[in-house]
Design goal:
Helix content: 10-25%
Structural class: mainly beta
Number of domains: 4
CATH superfamily of the largest domain: Baseplate protein-like domain - beta roll fold
Order of helices and strands: EEEEEEEHEHEEEEHEEEEEEHEHEEEE
Largest sheet: 13 strands, mixed
Number of helices: 5
Distance between the termini: 42 Å
CATH topology of the largest domain: Phage tail proteins - horseshoe like beta roll fold
CATH architecture of the largest domain: Roll
Radius of gyration: 23 Å
CATH class of the largest domain: Mainly Beta
């Protein structure tokens, strides 16, 4: 793998020979992909090339053939007096959308137009933006003030998703912001225990289960209820209460509260050039019969580690395709 440093003047410098380790990771909730690297430094070795790396400058992750996988901006760096390493943390351009507040009324604008407006205002290049054609009106603020540019984008796409049933995720691509349908990209390789996996874990948890919802009016009187009879039969009564809200369908809201068994899975595997697309927001097929982790899964979190010529990957998986929802 190659690490290229781009300074404020736009000068590029391949610093791969100085990089000891690379950790490249992503999360569907934390949004901005992150890269941590350690660089060899010395105050005494005059033969060791010296690199001046400043906050706000750019790093690029490339394959050995020079294909860009990722680019981001340096937000943290540090070293010690006695140490021989400089630690650097960079995030892709989505970090600016998550950290920049944007109090604004979006009136009768489709999510694609909201995204273009947010990018223009916050100085992020807009790329390929998923079209919905569903206009939304909302104020991008809460009781504490303005919400972030990212929240504005996801508020509009959350509303559209509830109308068209599609799920969306923003991601950076060569410095531009794309909004794509979440889970629509399937990793090229099907993972198997015999060829890829070094570890796999599976767990079930019913602590968060709700199989009955009592609907009440504003005086606490029961007016209706929804339940999942199969869950009640198998797991026992686990009940909560929902008070009707003006302008909302109480039955639909109560049904949305029902919550079944949480199933989680994680795998560790050997990396390779054909596995760079195993990133958060994509889908992957896995066949592992011991734990039962077999089928189509959605990647919630990924960590790619490059060190000493080895590439390893850790994935946290979801049995359901869910998006990072934000409501106005």
């Amino acid at each position: 793998m190659k690490i290229v440093h781009v300074n404020r003047a736009g000068k590029t410098n391949d610093i791969s020979q100085l990089v000891q380790s690379i950790t490249w990771s992503g999360d569907v909730v934390e949004v901005a992909r992150k890269m941590d690297i350690t660089i060899t430094v010395s105050s005494h070795d005059h033969y060791l090339p010296k690199v001046a790396i400043e906050l706000g400058e750019k790093l690029m992750l490339q394959t050995d053939e020079g294909e860009e996988l990722w680019q981001g901006y340096i937000f943290q760096k540090g070293r010690s007096l006695t140490g021989s390493e400089l630690s650097v943390t960079a995030f892709d351009g989505l970090i600016y959308l998550t950290k920049s507040k944007l109090p604004r009324l979006f009136q009768n604008m489709t999510p694609e137009k909201v995204t273009a407006a947010v990018c223009a205002e916050l100085g992020v290049q807009a790329g390929t933006i998923a079209a919905t054609g569903i206009p939304q009106t909302f104020a991008n603020q809460d009781s504490s003030g303005g919400k972030s540019g990212y929240e504005a984008i996801m508020t509009s796409y959350t509303a559209a998703s509830k109308q068209n049933g599609k799920l969306y995720i923003p991601r950076m691509n060569k410095g531009a912001l794309d909004v794509v349908e979440k889970g629509s990209t399937l990793a090229k390789v099907e993972l198997t225990a015999s060829a890829d996996l070094t570890e796999a874990n599976y767990a079930e948890d019913m602590n968060a289960m709700v199989n009955t919802v009592i609907i009440t009016d504003d005086k606490g009187n029961t007016v209706d209820q929804v339940r999942n009879n199969d869950w009640m039969k198998n797991y026992g009564l686990l009940q909560t209460v929902y008070q009707k809200e003006e302008g909302k369908d109480p039955k639909a809201m109560a049904e949305a509260i029902l919550h079944g068994v949480d199933r989680t899975a994680s795998v560790e595997l050997i990396g390779g050039q054909d596995k760079y697309d195993l990133i958060a927001g994509n889908a992957v097929r896995i066949k592992e019969e011991v734990t039962g982790i077999t089928g189509l899964f959605y990647i919630d979190r990924d960590t790619h580690t490059f060190q000493n010529g080895h590439h390893t990957i850790s994935l946290e998986l979801n049995y359901k395709n869910v998006m990072d929802e934000h409501d106005a």
